[in-house]
């Protein structure tokens, strides 16, 4: 029997808005492939994420991944020094202007307000943090003239442009295409000025367009469902006739709701309130309308989990949306295992416990760094790379042992990564701001992580303590959309 020979080919490596053509031999190891990527991107292999059907693992077999000539492959990671000597004169920070310094230091660009468009700007900054979405958009190419296709293409171009500048960008194409897709976003007041809109409604419309445009082919799962889709398994039981057999159903959604009542103090309790409902329907055993209890639990945990804080409701007396000001605390690290079905809880429990221990050890290391030096050194960063590699290997072994799907959340633990907040008393007024977590190569104590604040075109840095303080209780900025991953 003759062995099949795998020929080398050239592929396109996309990183930080640039494309590099490199040669890859699928019969070689992943480490050789990553080294070739390092040569052109400068991203060290230990902090490199190569996106091929998810994050490429070091022990993967390249020959079984179906690589094709000229395939676009996205690489995520902060570049270090390139392995070759510089060909241009070195420019020092003190010789750069403000915009050059911001780009060199990796500060992200803001978005210009085009007239009551803070609801859109804040939503776009949060969406941009989803790595799987960036990968899907990079490979998106279509001549479709549908409104959804135009929105998707404008998002692709906007995100690509944001990666290449520190200057504020005006999202003209995204806004104009969104207004064609959903004319409500083109509403104006009596003076002809564009009206303020709801960030959650903008989020929903954008995700709906992306879902249609990035649909799976050849039986593959839809890209948006795969990265953000959670599955709910619901049990419906008649309260008035307990002997009546319960019915079970499954439903896919792209976000969880956190209902807020006079008894809601914490995020998880608000989510459980939305998952446990009382409804009325016709009972086949009683032959009349009867009360039923509906209990839903998560049977698929996505890699990216969106939670909508339901803070607005319609007030008939004033004929407008009013805001629920109640304080509802939310965590930087969210454990969803109690929101899952019993089957999922049993499967995830060992990994859940291991991840909690890892997070505790990271917090301990951060406290030691702070106590000993006050600031992390390059040695701390180097040690952290080795530690996190060992952590990933430990979790990978547990995941493989338990047979958990690697396109889901394998532990039930999430980290808050982006947020949209609302300031004001009404959905028809006020101001939306976006917030995204800042990447760090070293562990940081809980509450001391740095975040970017996107107040339209103004970008600044705050600590996580500021994020946790936006839990409500007044008209100041309050958490509205939470993105965990």
TrEMBL record:
CDD domains: Peptidase_C19A. The keyword Hydrolase applies. SUPFAM superfamilies: Cysteine proteinases (SSF54001), Ubiquitin-like (SSF54236). The keyword Protease applies. GO terms for biological process: proteasome-mediated ubiquitin-dependent protein catabolic process; protein deubiquitination; regulation of proteasomal protein catabolic process. GO terms for molecular function: cysteine-type deubiquitinase activity; proteasome binding. It holds the Pfam family UCH. Keywords: Hydrolase, Protease, Thiol protease, Ubl conjugation pathway. It is an enzyme of class 3 (hydrolase). Its EC number is 3.4.19.12. It catalyses: Thiol-dependent hydrolysis of ester, thioester, amide, peptide and isopeptide bonds formed by the C-terminal Gly of ubiquitin (a 76-residue protein attached to proteins as an intracellular targeting signal). Residues 109-485 form the USP domain. Residues 9-76 form the Ubiquitin-like domain. Belongs to the peptidase C19 family. This is Ubiquitin carboxyl-terminal hydrolase. The lineage of its organism: Eukaryota, Fungi, Dikarya, Basidiomycota, Agaricomycotina.
């Amino acid at each position: 029997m003759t062995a099949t020979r795998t020929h080398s080919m050239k592929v396109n490596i996309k990183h930080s808005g640039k494309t590099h053509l490199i040669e890859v031999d699928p019969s070689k190891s992943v480490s050789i492939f990553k080294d070739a990527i390092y040569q052109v991107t400068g991203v060290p292999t230990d902090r490199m994420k190569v996106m091929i059907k998810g994050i490429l693992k070091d022990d993967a077999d390249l020959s079984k991944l179906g690589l094709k000539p000229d395939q676009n492959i996205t690489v995520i990671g902060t570049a270090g020094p390139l392995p070759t000597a510089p060909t241009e004169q070195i420019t020092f920070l003190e010789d750069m202007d403000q915009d050059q310094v911001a780009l060199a230091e990796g500060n992200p660009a803001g978005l210009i307000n085009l007239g009551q468009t803070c609801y859109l700007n804040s939503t776009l900054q949060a969406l941009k943090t989803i790595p799987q979405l960036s990968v899907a958009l990079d490979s998106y190419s279509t001549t479709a003239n549908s409104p959804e296709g135009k929105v998707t293409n404008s998002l692709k171009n906007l995100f690509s442009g944001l990666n290449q500048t520190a200057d504020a960008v005006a999202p003209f194409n995204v806004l104009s295409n969104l207004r064609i897709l959903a004319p409500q976003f083109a509403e104006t007041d009596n003076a002809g000025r564009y009206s303020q809109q709801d960030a959650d409604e903008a989020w929903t419309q954008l995700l709906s367009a992306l879902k249609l445009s990035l649909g799976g082919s050849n039986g593959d799962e839809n890209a948006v469902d795969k990265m953000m889709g959670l599955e709910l398994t619901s049990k419906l039981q008649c309260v008035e006739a307990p002997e009546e057999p319960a019915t079970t159903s499954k439903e896919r959604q792209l976000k969880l709701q956190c209902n807020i009542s006079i008894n809601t103090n914490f995020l998880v309790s608000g989510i459980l309130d939305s998952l446990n409902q009382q409804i009325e329907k016709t009972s086949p055993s009683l032959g009349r309308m009867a009360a039923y209890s509906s209990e839903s639990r998560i049977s698929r945990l996505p890699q990216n989990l969106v939670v909508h804080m339901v803070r607005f409701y319609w007030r008939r007396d004033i004929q407008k949306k009013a805001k629920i000001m109640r304080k509802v605390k939310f965590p930087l690290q969210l454990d969803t295992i109690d929101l899952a079905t019993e089957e999922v809880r049993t499967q995830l429990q060992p990994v859940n416990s291991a991840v909690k221990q890892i997070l505790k050890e990271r917090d301990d290391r951060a406290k030691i760094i702070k106590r000993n030096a006050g600031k992390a050194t390059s040695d701390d960063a180097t040690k952290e790379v080795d530690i996190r590699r060992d952590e990933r290997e430990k979790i990978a072994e547990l995941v493989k042992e338990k047979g958990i799907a690697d396109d889901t959340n394998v532990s039930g633990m999430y980290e808050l990564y982006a947020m949209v907040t609302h300031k004001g008393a009404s959905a028809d007024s006020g101001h939306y701001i976006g917030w995204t977590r800042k990447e760090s190569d070293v562990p940081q104590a809980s509450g001391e992580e740095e975040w970017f604040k996107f107040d339209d075109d103004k970008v600044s840095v705050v600590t996580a303590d500021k994020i946790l303080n936006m839990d409500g209780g007044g008209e100041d900025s309050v958490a509205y959309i939470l993105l965990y991953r």
